[in-house]
Design a protein that fits this description.
Layout (H helix, E strand, L loop, with lengths): L33 H8 L5 E2 L2 E2 L16 H21 L2 E4 L2 E10 L5 E6 L4 E6 L7 H14 L6 E5 L5 E7 L3 H12 L2
Helix pairs in contact: 2-4
Length: 189
């Protein structure tokens, strides 16, 4: 068995232990190398107790994602989207003919739109610009969901909660991942 004198497998180090990245032409310095730190800790040299000192934000984009401010912002946006997707997934349940979306409705708002996620209730929060009279708020809710998911209004129906703020909405013919990604995309606008 060959004795490997290096502690980690670096893609920038050749067979002779020479660096072909930041320290081009020099021998591998492992612990002192920025790439080594990124690989072993998952954080870059600007990371300090959850704070990115390079861009002044409470988030590390991870190894190799902060060469420019634009790279950092794109990584942040992707991470934010992933976080939102995980939250939204909690309020979507797959069924044989589609899925159920658990929502909390806030009637009488200035505009109708999806505003966020209630972690405590595990429901999507939706503001509607109609009052709770004669089913107007329910109809507006179904329109908002249908428009967000780009499905026909007839494929969206309230299953439970016709007279309460908390409702279970059936969306026919749509997979949960489509619901989640469409909602996240709408929330980013």
């Amino acid at each position: 068995m060959e004795d490997n004198k290096f502690n980690f497998d670096c893609p920038y180090r050749d067979d002779k232990g020479i660096c072909h990245w930041k320290y081009e032409g020099y021998g591998c310095i492992e612990e002192k190398c920025e790439y080594y730190r990124m690989v072993t800790t998952g954080k870059c040299k600007y990371y300090n107790n959850g704070f990115c000192e390079k861009y002044g934000a409470f988030f590390c984009a991870g190894p190799g994602f902060c060469d420019t401010e634009e790279d950092y912002k794109n990584a942040m946006k992707k991470a934010w989207g992933a976080l939102k997707e995980r939250e939204i997934e909690e309020c979507v349940e797959e069924r044989d003919n589609g899925c159920i979306l658990r929502v909390e409705v806030i009637a009488g708002a200035k505009e109708s739109r999806i505003v966020g996620y209630d972690k405590q209730r595990r429901r999507l929060r939706v503001k509607v610009a109609k009052e709770r009279r004669k089913g107007a708020a329910n109809a507006e809710l179904l329109k908002v969901i249908a428009d967000t998911l780009r499905v026909k209004r007839k494929n969206v129906e309230i299953m439970h909660g016709h007279r309460t703020r908390e409702k279970d909405v059936m969306i026919r013919g749509v997979k949960p991942w489509v619901v989640v990604s469409s909602i996240v995309r709408q929330m980013e606008k």
